[in-house]
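Let's see one such:

===
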Amino acid sequence: MSNFYCRYCGSQSSSASSLTSSACSKNPNGKYHALYEGTEKSRYFCKYCGESSPSISSLTYSNCNRNSNGKFHVPYVGNEKSKYFCKYCGQSSPSISSLTYSPCSKNSEGKFHVPYRGGETSRYKCKFCGTESPTISSLTYSNCNKNPKGKFHIPAV
């Protein structure tokens, strides 16, 4: 049997529908639990600062000073990697904490680098317009006229 977790508070349920129909006090975008779309792991990392914890509920218990969309830690959905790339500019780093430590001038939703949750590939495609490029940094170098929140291309997962 699979477990379903809320990405904002770590509440657990055996059913996605029962989880997402219950109230969540930590969801900055609404009043209900939001489904965590990653896999179960031995450690969870905050996508905004790299803080780690053995459970989503313990990770999301404390505040994150780098989360511009809310005030708590939010688990990174992707798998652990030897190298992480910023989804807004393509800068790379060996850990989430070192990547998210410095500001990103292309992040239209916050101030710092945010890890791309997909894996390394030979081509990256913009999630808004479909433009392709061999690297995240070359994709995000130019403007995207279909990006509603900013002006640069953002890679699809």
The chain has a mean pLDDT of 93. The longest strand covers residues 4-5.
